[in-house]
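Annotators were shown the component list below and the corresponding predicted structure, then asked to write short factual statements about the assembly.
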Amino acid sequence: MTKTDYASVMARKGEIMLSSLGIDYAPFMAHPVTFDYEALMGLVPYDIDEVRQVQARAGVGSTALIELRQITRLARSLSSKGKGARIFVKDEAANPSGSYKARRAALSLHHAEQAGFKGVVTATSGNYGAAVASQAARRNLDCVVVQEVFDSHGIGQPEILEKGRACEIYGAEVMQLSVGPELFYSFLRVLEETGYFNASLYTPFAIAGVEPLGFEIVEQMQTATGAAPDVVICTHAGGGNLTGTARGLRKAGADRTQIIGASVNLTGLHMASDTDFNRKHFTTGHTGFGIPFAGWPDRTDVPRNAARVLRYMDRYLLLKQGEVFYMTEVLARLEGLERGPAGNVSLAAAFALSQEMDADQTIVVQETEYAGAGKQPSAQLSFARSRGIEILRGDSEAEIPGQTVIIPDGPGRIQVRDLDMTKLRRGLVKKAAAMVEDNARDDALVQFLADETQMSPTEITGLL
Amino acid sequence: MTSYAADWVQIHKIILRPDERPKTLPAETRAVPLEMRVKGWQVTESAEIGDQVRVRTVLGREQTGELIAENPEYGHDFGRAIPELLAAGDELVAMMRDMPKED
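Structure shown to annotators:
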């Protein structure tokens, strides 16, 4: 009989992943570091028009692009003369499951269906669970969602409880786990027991599914302003959102659009800590995922991650929790849009960045998400307050994750804070170098790392 | 409270005991077990809270665990208004009213 203890299952990780993906990763695993990234993405046998057709049949995509005129006016009132870029938002909440994640799920599950799987499994505490469950429902596929929900007292924060409820509504079996990275072990066991498809967020399908989002932005901005946007901001966690959007922008010919990632800064809180778990007020789109996944993408449930943000990200901006809650209020009160947390991270970044840019320039915030019970600042901050977190007005700069949330005392407080990209890029190169023998540091490795980090081959050689 | 076969219930089980969890975890996480909760239709004829029961999940998969609730509430809600945010919203609306319209 097959052993199901932790060590035995983890030892079978490679074979379980391979049989549950319907993708042959072998050609991409020959070298410890380098592989042909475009060939990996090329495993998706559809061009972008075909991807759009698959998604249209699933009710996904073609969401509205909305200009946020009042927020732009507010930004201009704080800017010097001639500054204050126009801000637009892509209303991804209009997708079937209420977020852009429907795009990733639609193409992944189309692939699962084509490959003959009867069901799908996904490990996520985010909007992706509902997206997979929703797309599975449309295709008569079984769906299991493995979620990290509770601390050891059985307490979960409202935002995650809502995400679990949404999965159940679409008919998924939801395995709700307490805090810990061994969620992966439970996930592997379900894959083994069921023989279902691993609807990972990180396959080429899950990334190619986001490309139409970038493509649509260019089409819609051309109609609205006559040109591709100057900046697109993506809320960044695992990296698929930014990677797929950037690829879509390029496919639409927007070579000069700057691509910026934005995350909530949760430095100081440990992602695997039972006690820190309910002291973060954003459950995704934060640095706890964003920094490690940017610095080393191959830490997921697939052998090679197709989401590789350093290939595309030009800047990485960090926000305070209080700033994002504040922008959520701004969006509701000045634009009449109540939306969930994810896109509002990018919106806060856009608001600060707009003030540095020229008034004839444009910024697109590339997502919104639905707002249901549990997802609002009222739910998340009431929960925080009941657990002793102090909620204050003032300068968010002084906020301490896990102790305080500081709602800005004016819109001028929202800041542009760059994370040092050079450090992030060098970190990746160093880690890669440590995996290769000294005498095997050849031109192919240099070129791969140059592509991987957008650094020059000369810089890479210097670092190696 | 007694629950019966075909009731929609929630069960709980320990996936990993603390001594089975990886040593790399933070101490506070490794001090507690990895737990799982799942809902399903009860298969066991009748049971009290705390009993071991069999359930059939929405997908028809059978699972066994400790009965912890019959049709549990989702429980999450909208919370209360946050006065600090309400005040911020009021300030912003006033600010916009005083701001000259652009041409």
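Statements collected:
1. Chain A has 19 helices and twelve strands.
2. The radius of gyration of chain A is 21 Å.
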